[in-house]
Structures are given as C-alpha cells and as structure tokens.
Amino acid sequence: MLSTLEDGKIVRGLGGISSEGPVLFVGYHMLLGLELAPLVARFWAERDILVRGMAHPLTFTKLKEGKLPELSTFDTFRMMGAVPVSAINFYKLFASKSHVLLYPGGMREALHRKGEEYRLFWPEQSEFVRMAARFGATIIPFGTVGEDDIGQGLYVVPGLEA
Hints:
globular, alpha/beta, 17% strand
C-alpha cells in the first residue's frame, strides 16, 4: 500500500493517513470486494485504526429461521466494524470522528458485467460529500488495481465468451 505525506511525498505504507478523524475513504468497488479484508486488516495492524465500512443492508439480514444461532452474532463484517449504509450511520460515525470506508457504486459496481471493469456507478448526487463536509472530514480517494483483471481469468473460458 502507498500513501501520501502532507508534503506530497508518496511513501510505502499508511504513514500518510491521519490518525485523527473523521476521515472518509472513497473508492471503486472491485469484483466482489475481495480487497476489503486485507485493506481493513492493514489499517488495524499498521496504524491501530479501525476502518468502519459502510455495507449494503442485506449483509446484515438473517435470511433463514432455524435452530442454529443467528450468524450475524458472529458476523465477520460486524466484527471488523462494518455497519449498514444509511444517512444516520454516516452521521453517527462522523460525529464520533471515525475512519469510514465507502464504495458509492455499491453492489452494482461490485457485481459489474463483462466490459464494465473499472467503470464507476456512482449516484448523480453524492450526499456523502455533503455529510463529510459538514463534519470537516478528510476525504481520501483510493483505488486498487488488478482484481477485475484476475477475475476475467476465472470466468472467461476461451471459445465460450458471450
């Protein structure tokens, strides 16, 4: 991982990321979000920063009744600090000076079709910018490279392309 220091110098690691919040990380949602676990874990291990991800509400929904304990009790997303994406949760996280992770393109971006690699599906009106500005949050755009390209090798079989 690379980050930028205040003087503009690019360095390896997360030394350019402020420990003081609120901070909003805004990025492109790669194929299925496979970059999430290493990203959040690296912030935690290297800087002792808990990055609070805004996740689709379905991530937190119990889909089936049964005799086993509700899986959300042991849900990895919640254990790593994720909360359902909503205006009230944004407000609470910014008010508590948290480091917040948002993919404005959401699930549509994550589950993109062939030929839509690296294409943004952000809403016309980005209300998250207004909320971040209201709290004086530092907005840090970020990106990852390669996950969409690796995915092509997994789901494109020569001779069977659509």
